[in-house]
Amino acid sequence: MVLEAVECPTCGGVDIHRHGQSATGKKRYICRNENCTRKTFILDYTYKGHLATVKQQITEMAINGSGIRDTGRVLGISPTTVINELKKSRKI
Predict the structure, then answer these.
(1) Is 21 helix (H, G, I), strand (E, B) or coil?
(2) DSSP H or E run through 82
(3) DSSP 79
(4) CA 80 to CA 57: how far, in whole Å?
């Protein structure tokens, strides 16, 4: 039996428990920290658009003037994902 050291990618908490499986069979975890904004997560996502580093790159590329299709092509994600992420990061 092997123990995996898992911590929450949002808050860095270590009070983590298994929370079933995703539709693709990957392990899902739940963060039990009360102050954490993100409750469930998967350690290695199949789709790159879910990664925090890719989301940051989307914002940086938009600031530098890259188009939506160009950003999607460079990062290997859908242009729809780029648009949705830019809508979320917009400050109102």
Answers:
(1) strand
(2) helix 79-89
(3) H
(4) 15
- Cα 35 off chain centre by: 18
The tally of domains found in the chain comes to 2
Question: What confidence tens digit (pLDDT) does each residue in 5-64 have?
Answer: 888 888 888 888 888 998 888 899 999 888 888 888 888 777 888 788 898 999 999 999
Does residue 89 have a pLDDT over 80?
no
Which of 75, 11, 8 lies closest to 42, judged by CA?
8
Tell whether 36 and 54 lie within a shared domain: no
Cα 29 from Cα 21, distance rounded (Å)? 8
Q: How far apart are CA 57 and CA 2, in angstroms?
A: 34
Domain of residue 6 covers 1-44
Question: Are residues 40 and 2 both part of a single domain?
Answer: yes
**Shared-domain flag, residues 40 and 3:** yes
